[in-house]
Design goal:
Number of strands: 9
CATH architecture: Alpha-Beta Barrel
Structural class: alpha/beta
Number of domains: 1
CATH topology: TIM Barrel
Shape: globular
Strand order of the largest sheet: 1-2-4-5-6-7-8-9
Length: 254
C-alpha cells in the first residue's frame, strides 16, 4: 500500500501546480484566547480580551463535568493544574466545584451555557468548537447559535452528521481515529464511496510532512485550519500556504 501512495504522489506532483490563494487568513483565538501570557484558560476574561483584540473567531474546548454538564476546559488535568488542584490530576469536578474555582487565581471558568450567552450578546462572532463533535450534544447546548458555529469533527460519521444538521462550517480533524481511511476514501477514492467529500480539515504544521497529506495536497483542493501558529506565519510551509484559510493562535493578532 505504501508503494501505491508513493506512485500516486510522484504522478500528482508532475501533474498539479501550487496555484491558488495566499494570505488573508481567518485567525482563531485558541482556547478562548491568551490573556496576560496565560493560554488554555477557556475563561471569560480571555474571551473578552480576544474580542477587544479584534478576533471574530474564538475557540473553546468542551468537556463534561463529573455530573455530566458540558463546560469549557481543555482537559481536567490542565484545568486542575491551573486552578490549584494539580493533585487531582485528571479527576473531573462536579459542576458546582467547577464554577467555584478561579483559573490562575483570577480568571472565571465558563459553562457551555455561559458561552452561548456570550455569543448571543456578540452576534458578529463565530464559535469554534474543539473536543466535542457529537451533533446531538451540541444541539442541546447551543440551539441558538448553530449558524455561527465551526465544529471540529473527530470522526467521519460526526462530520456527516454535523453537515446534515446545518452547522456553519465543519472541519474534519487530523486527530480523528479514522483519519487515514477517511482522507483516502473521501479525497483519493471519493467516487467509490458514499457520503460527502471532505472539504475542510484541521491539522498541525507537522502533518504536512506525512505521506497521506502529501498525496492529498498534490491531488486535490481542500481548505485547512492550521494549529497552533504563534511566532510567525513563516511557520506555515511555503508550499502549503495556498491551502490554509484559518489559523489557530495564542499570539498572532488578526
Amino acid at each position: 500500500m505504501r508503494n501505491i501512495y508513493i506512485l500516486l504522489l510522484i504522478f500528482s506532483l508532475s501533474a498539479c501546480s501550487d496555484a491558488g490563494r495566499k494570505g488573508e487568513y481567518e485567525f482563531i483565538a485558541h482556547a478562548g484566547g491568551a490573556i496576560d501570557g496565560c493560554v488554555y484558560t477557556n475563561s471569560y476574561e480571555a474571551f473578552e480580551r480576544a474580542v477587544e483584540s479584534g478576533y471574530r473567531f474564538v475557540e473553546f474546548d468542551f468537556i463534561f463535568t463529573a455530573d455530566s454538564v458540558l463546560v469549557a476546559a481543555h482537559s481536567w488535568e490542565k484545568f486542575n493544574e491551573m486552578s490549584g488542584y494539580s493533585h487531582l490530576r485528571d479527576t473531573a469536578p462536579v459542576l458546582s466545584e467547577f464554577i467555584s474555582r478561579r483559573i490562575h487565581s483570577r480568571y472565571t471558568p465558563l459553562t457551555a451555557s455561559d458561552v452561548q450567552e456570550l455569543f448571543l450578546a456578540n452576534d458578529s462572532l463565530y464559535l469554534v468548537v474543539d473536543k466535542m463533535s457529537d451533533a446531538k450534544v451540541l444541539g442541546e447546548y447551543f440551539p441558538r447559535i448553530k449558524g455561527r458555529m465551526i465544529v471540529e469533527a473527530f470522526s467521519y460519521d460526526d462530520y456527516v452528521s454535523l453537515l446534515d444538521r446545518g452547522y456553519y462550517r465543519v472541519l474534519y480533524s487530523c486527530m480523528a481515529q479514522d483519519v487515514t481511511s477517511s482522507l483516502l476514501k473521501h479525497f483519493v477514492l471519493h467516487r467509490l464511496f458514499s457520503g460527502p467529500r471532505i472539504e475542510w480539515i484541521t491539522l498541525h504544521t507537522s502533518a504536512f510532512e506525512k505521506l497521506p497529506f502529501k498525496i492529498i495536497d498534490a491531488l486535490f483542493d481542500y481548505k485547512a485550519a492550521l494549529f497552533t501558529v504563534n511566532d510567525t506565519l513563516l511557520e506555515i510551509p511555503e508550499g502549503y500556504r495556498n491551502k490554509v484559510y484559518m489559523i489557530y493562535t495564542d499570539s498572532v493578532k488578526p
